[in-house]
Specification:
The protein is mainly α. Helix content is 68%, strand content 3%. It is built from 44 helices and 5 strands. Strands 1-2-3-5-4 form a 5-stranded mixed sheet, sandwiched between helices. Helix 19 runs parallel beside helix 21. The longest helix has 25 residues.
């Protein structure tokens, strides 16, 4: 998201375009080899493919081209060989390359040489470097002197606007940007297709577009102004597609513009195009880094940071991105280091101070966060960006009221800033305050009708407003009545059945009703939970609100799943978050939620945990949350869930449930993990970790993965499989019983034994193994149906009802599951249950007819119906 006020870091990243690329005119005519996209893999400068220069290039031309295309060191080398060159041209190329490499002092010295010091481009670059070093007053003085001598300077007015934003003088910024619109009438002339000479120069058109964009943002110029939106896009496209097809800075400007409207997909395309031309442009990489963070691509972000530091090892841009990445990973302690590096060089850097306040807020150090914000206000009394940063971190921790207060301050101080309103709007949707969300997002949409994030949120609220609702004593279930008619029939009843049990477990009951929102498509669910149409799960709790994808098979869903188990998991989150004022450690709320599912370890977790224990690859307590936030391997997130469950089980078993309750109370009071372990368990985390690891060794000891048992399994399994294949069930039975004894934590022996007992007409023996399989089955209801039929046939109608209902819970859109449950209700004399199931069966029949009819519609009408 575009920051409201630019830091010196952002200023140098953005304003370098004004000086560096201005000298690119001689670079247009040569052929280049495309470099690999930096988004994928960092490429050191020495590995960049060579440029193919035209035959008429002299050394000065080559140096200019090398500088323009990111071969900064090579450009300096080439300059040394250049003979009989204009010293001013050579100095500007040299200074631009030095500045790009982070050699600010050398660049300033170069720009102070008599031959170049009074050149307009030298003045602009000096102002840019001064801003980079945090010397904003000197930079402003340089720009004012430049504009006094060159009052028509596009770059001068644009940089003055950006620096004015930086120091908090928004009136001066509006005036500087307004020069392009009010004084020079450049927007009107562009829209009127006048023949202004500046419109034939790619650099000038790009600068004009960037300035008008900021003018529109600061003055509300985008409000219901489609023509302005199209005009600015046209400026950037014409700059790189018509005026000068090699002018990559226009791609970067276009990407920045798209990002200001939260259109990341188009921004990435523009940045890749720019990086093909100049793989070492730090501003393009900075924007890619922000996109990577916004999509939780931490590995991609690390690669970008690495790439930036290969160009400038002391880059403040890299330090800022690293700080933001660590904060987003909830690694506030680690974030202090890069933040401090920035502040050591620039103690008054507002962006770094905002990040410092955010780090303190993330660690629940409210006094330090408030003190840091006061430091910001001494430098910029009307600052909004630092409050926005803190609000983002508090919101991510579900500290909704505190986050809302900080968002409101940002909005009050920058009422034109869409990002702050979007942040508050998303916060309200996550806390279940849809009316406040609508008001906030409507205001954001009025300011910027083209912002994709705002549009996504508003569409979500439109969908929610059309949802039907089913209310019970403690829950309100929202659902799409057409797409998911069976939802209210089962959800409320089940939720009320678990409410007291879950709340009693933690001696806490949420003060307000919990919202359950069931979305008909996975994309809508993802927007609800993250603001973006992607997230690889079926359920999520943001505190009061639990969001779910509809538990049915379909092109736009995640398939059938045991919604009851998922709801129990998510409601545990709601209760533990409420009990701790949302301050519970991430691993603990996840571990307790899995513990509350009341199911055995998932089959897929068994070999994973065994390997992690045996090979000493369990997460440390310090790194455990990273497994959720930043999984390095495909198994890391699942391992984090499994290990968190184990830790909570270990604490529950060894120290008692009272210890868990005391830990929740300590988290609520604001104590961190280290303090909580010391006070409640009486030992430091490191000692607890050692004890826990020793416990895990004992857990896996009987799982049958030791060398001796593995050898027995290897010898026995072929014989057992062969006997079954030959239908020698009596012979196969003891072999599979032995396999089950050797590997009690694997599903295959249970599956084989269940099948054998059924073949031998011993269903009562099969039940034990079918129940073991069903206990951890999330998506397939065949085991539950088989158990229900056995209990029904044996006259155990209570057991039959339990498992027939379980089959409905796993796949509520399976007619055979409802028919089975109806038959069991009828046999048991439960007329109410029978009546309900008959209604559902008829409802599903009509629902399926509607689905079939919809699939036969023309494609355009199908899209409309969706």
């Amino acid at each position: 998201r575009t920051m409201m006020k630019l830091s010196p870091i952002a200023v140098v990243a953005g304003l370098l375009l004004v000086s560096v690329v201005a000298q690119s005119s001689a670079a247009h005519d040569f052929v280049k080899e495309s470099a690999p996209h930096r988004w994928i893999e960092p490429l050191v400068p020495e590995e960049l493919p060579p440029l193919k220069d035209p035959s008429y290039f002299n050394d000065l031309d080559k140096a200019r081209a090398q500088m323009f295309h990111g071969r900064y060191k090579l450009s300096l080398v080439t300059l040394r060989k250049a003979k009989n060159v204009d010293p001013a041209d050579a100095a500007l190329i040299k200074a631009n390359s030095q500045a790009a490499l982070g050699r600010s002092e050398a660049a300033m010295k170069t720009l102070s040489e008599p031959a170049v010091k009074d050149q307009p481009r030298a003045q602009l670059l000096r102002a840019n470097i001064l801003a980079t070093e945090g010397k904003t007053e000197d930079a402003l003085a340089e720009l004012r002197a430049h504009l006094k001598t060159h009052p028509e300077s596009l770059g001068g007015h644009f940089q003055l606007g950006q620096l004015s934003e930086l120091v908090g003088d928004l009136d001066a910024a509006r005036k500087a940007y307004g020069w392009f619109v009010d004084d020079k009438q450049l927007l009107q002339k562009w829209q009127g297709q006048s023949g202004e000479s500046v419109f034939d120069d790619a650099e000038s058109v790009t600068t004009i577009g960037r300035a008008i964009d900021r003018w529109a943002a600061l003055t509300g110029g985008y409000r219901n102004n489609v023509a302005l939106h199209n005009a600015l896009l046209n400026m950037f496209i014409k700059a790189y597609d018509v005026i000068d097809r090699g002018y990559w800075p226009a791609h970067v400007a276009s990407a920045d513009y798209f990002l200001s409207h939260d259109n990341k997909e188009e921004a990435v395309k523009e940045l890749e195009a720019a990086l093909d031309e100049n793989p070492n442009d730090i501003n393009a990489m900075r924007l890619l880094g922000l996109i990577a963070l916004d999509t939780f691509n931490f590995d991609g972000c690390d690669k970008i940071i690495d790439s930036i530091r290969k160009i400038d090892k002391n880059s403040l841009v890299a330090d800022v991105i690293e700080s933001r990445s660590l904060l987003q990973q909830r690694r506030a302690k680690d974030a202090f280091e890069p933040i401090q590096r920035i502040l050591n060089r620039q103690p008054k850097n507002i962006e770094a101070l905002g990040l410092l306040a955010s780090a303190h807020a993330l660690r629940l150090e409210d006094d330090k966060a408030a003190a840091t914000l006061k430091e910001v206000e001494k430098l910029d009394p009307d600052n909004a960006s630092a409050y926005y940063d803190v609000a983002e971190q508090l919101g991510a921790m579900r500290q909704y009221p505190r986050a809302a207060d900080h968002f409101k301050i940002a909005i009050e101080r920058a009422p034109w800033w869409t990002a702050a309103r979007n942040g508050l709007g998303l916060l309200y949707t996550q806390s279940g305050d849809e009316d406040d969300a609508r008001t906030t997002l409507d205001a954001a949409h009025a300011l910027d009708p083209f912002n994709l994030a705002t549009t996504n949120y508003l569409r979500l609220l439109d969908d929610l407003s059309k949802f039907a609702r089913s209310e019970s004593e403690h829950f309100i279930v929202f659902y799409d009545a057409q797409a998911d008619p069976v939802i209210p029939i089962y959800f409320g009843e089940y939720l009320e059945s678990i409410h007291k049990e879950v709340c009693d477990e933690f001696k806490h009951e949420p003060k307000v009703k919990t919202y359950i929102e069931v979305f008909p498509t996975h994309d809508a669910f993802s927007v609800r939970t993250t603001g973006s149409p992607w997230i690889g799960t079926v359920g999520a709790s943001t505190g009061r609100v639990i969001a779910l994808v509809a538990p049915r098979k379909g092109k736009y869903t995640m398939g059938a799943f045991n919604w009851a188990q998922v709801l129990r998991h998510e409601y545990t989150h709601t209760v533990t978050l409420s009990a701790t004022d949302n301050r519970i450690a991430h691993w603990m709320t996840e571990g307790l939620a899995v513990l509350q599912e009341k199911t055995p370890l998932q089959w897929a977790w068994i070999p994973m945990l065994n390997e992690a224990v045996k090979k000493k690859k369990l997460f440390t307590m310090e790194n455990l949350t990273w497994g959720f936030v930043r999984p390095r391997r495909p198994i890391d997130r699942q391992l984090a869930y499994a290990q968190s469950f184990w830790i909570c089980k270990y604490i529950d078993d060894k120290y008692g449930r009272d210890a868990i309750l005391k830990m929740l109370a300590e988290f609520r009071s604001g104590r961190n993990e280290a303090e909580t372990f010391e006070k409640v368990l009486g030992k430091p985390i490191e000692k607890f970790q050692a004890e826990f690891f020793a416990w895990t060794d004992k857990q896996v000891a009987g799982w049958g993965y030791d060398t001796e048992t593995a050898a027995k399994v290897k010898e026995l399994q072929p014989k057992a499989e062969a006997a079954l294949d030959d239908r020698q069930y009596e012979d196969a039975l003891p072999l599979w019983q032995e396999m089950n004894k050797l590997r009690p934590m694997e599903p295959t022996p249970h599956m084989r034994l269940a099948a054998i007992y059924l073949k031998l007409k011993k269903p009562e023996k099969a039940i034990e193994h079918l129940e073991a399989l069903d206990a951890v089955e999330l998506h397939d209801n065949r085991y539950a149906k088989a158990i229900a039929r056995i209990y029904r046939d044996n006259g155990d109608l209570k057991g039959a009802v339990k498992y027939a209902k379980q089959s409905v819970y796993i796949d509520p859109y399976d007619p055979s599951a409802h028919e089975l449950l109806a038959a069991v209700y009828e046999k048991s004399g439960d007329n109410d249950g029978l009546s309900r199931e008959n209604r559902v069966i008829a409802m599903l029949s009509q629902w399926k007819e509607r689905q079939r009819a919809a699939e036969q519609l023309p494609s355009t009408e199908q899209e409309s119906n969706k």
